[in-house]
Each structure stands twice: as structure tokens, then as C-alpha cells.
Amino acid sequence: MDGRAAARDLELLRAHVAGDRDAFAELFHRHRDRLWAVALRTLGDREEAADALQDALLSAHRAAARFRGDSAVTTWLHRIVVNACLDRIRRRQAHPTVPLPDGNRAEDGSGTGGLEPAAPAEDHDTVLVVREALAALPLEQRAALVLVDVQGYPVAEVARILGVAEGTVKSRCARGRARLAVLLGHLRPAAVATPSTRPGPAATIAGVPDVTPGNPGPVEGVGSGSGRYRRDANQEDT
Question: How far apart are CA 116 and CA 111, in angstroms?
């Protein structure tokens, strides 16, 4: 992010703290797509991701006055979203449930009305296998891989988001890639490559469609005003 964009983010956050009712909504919309993508990739479920994003935005909305400026506003927002996702995963693991069929959720994602594009029919099974493999990773490895290999964030930025050393991010990614290589080894090499073999800074785990650029629609069930949130979340002030 360039300096002007970062300065605008800080200006909006300060305006929100000062009482501007529209400032936080503008701040969220500036980063909506990437925050949504991180939540969706981390949780692997659209409804869970929307709920986690709501929780995170409520926390950010309430904790804005305690933002100390030790990191960029976007780093702070991403950290809150990742923590909200990991909290939901931990709660889900502590209290596992069997999901019931939902008539509003088409199997290919086309009936959700959200941002993620449906995979081509011939790739759908591969997409599901890759998502299941990601979900099988330990939480710390999954979060690091989603941010580095799926979303394309630099390791240094991911370290700031997760609050760990850069070497820790690298080791988590390496261990996660090794696990994925085993879990996805039965797929065709031409169809699936481990993240470490994919080119470019925005490399993605094969089979997972990119949702970050150019998503014009609103995230389903997510708003900026406190009246639209369904539950409180643990506040994040770092």
C-alpha cells in the first residue's frame, strides 16, 4: 500500500473516532475484498466467514479509539479478521456440530449471492479437495498459508498481521506446504502444484479461485453500523 492510501486509512479511522458516522464504512469498503477473501479462505465456509467478518468489524469499530498507530491501519484490520477466524475455528473444534442441509446454499456457490466466483464444473471436485486439505492444517499454518500463498502478502506484512517473527511465518508456511503436498499428492501434477512452485507474488494454491480483485458487490450479511451485527466479539486493540 502506498503512503497516500495508508494516510487516508488513518484519516478515516481518526474521523470515525471523532464521530464521523460514515468514515468507518468507507474504511471497510476500501479493504472489503481482501478482508473477505482472508476470512473465506481461512474458514472455508461462506456463512462462517461472513459471521467472522462481522465479529471482526464490530471489534474494530469499538476498539478504534485504542489504535496506537504501531502498524498500518490495514495491518490492524487484517489482524482482527484473522483472530476472529481463528477464534471461530477453535470454538468449532471444541463444540463440533453436523451441518444441516441448507436450501439457500447451492453446491457450486452460485446461490449464495456473495463474492466468490463458482469454480468451473470440471474443477469443482479439485476445489473441494484443496479446501478440505487447507482445513486439515493446524490453525497457525493455515493462517500463514492463506495470507502468504493465497492472498500474496509479503512475509514481513504477514508477520505484522500475525504478531510473530518473519522466520516463524516462513517455517509455518514450509510445514503447511509439506502437509499439503502429502494431502494433495494423489492429484495430477498438472492440475495441482504446491504453493512453493507457483510463480509470482500473488501465487495461489491451485484449485482455489482468486476472489480479491474487482469484487463490486457487498459482502452478504456484513455492514458497518453496530446495529447490523448479530453478536459481540472479543475486542482487538493492537
Answer: 11
